[in-house]
Amino acid sequence: MVSCKFPGDAFDMTRGAHAAIVLTGFGLPVAPFDLGATRILAKPSKDIETVLDLFWRDKGAYVGYSICEAPFYLLLMDCVRTLRRLVPVRPELAEVKKLFARAKMALPPDPDRG
Q: What is the DSSP letter of 77?
């Protein structure tokens, strides 16, 4: 919710060694990703020491991974308000709606009301 209070790059949370280590901890092989060239710059690894070494060279690199190897899904949205508005009505987000229902969870609270 704090990140919603200040303007910024929606993809900041997908950059750098900290993000890479978190995803590696969940078992996802990762490597630095070049957004301009739209390609992964090294062989993805789930070994934390290897990942640290890969991201040490470029501390601001985006975290890249193979969606085919992901043991989970990530939903990245830059606006909680938009998420709250679109999930109930957009067919493309039906799976997200199902996940919240299955977990008996509500959508994140509106950042303007907290």
A: -
Query: What are the phi and psi torsion angles at 31 (to 5°)?
Result: -160, 160
Write out the residue range of the structural domain in which residue 17 sits: 2-69
pLDDT tens figures, 5-25: 666 676 777 888 999 998 898
Q: Identify whether residues 90 and 61 lie together within a single domain.
A: no
pLDDT in tens, 40-58: 899 999 999 999 999 988 8
pTM exceeds 0.85: no
Measured in degrees and rounded to the nearest 5, phi and psi for residue 66 equal: -90, 120
Tokens representing 35 are 């957004």
CA distance 72 to 77: 16
* 58 to 11, 30, 38, 108: CA distances (angstroms): 16, 14, 16, 33
Q: Is 74 inside any structural domain? A: no
DSSP summary character for residue 39: E
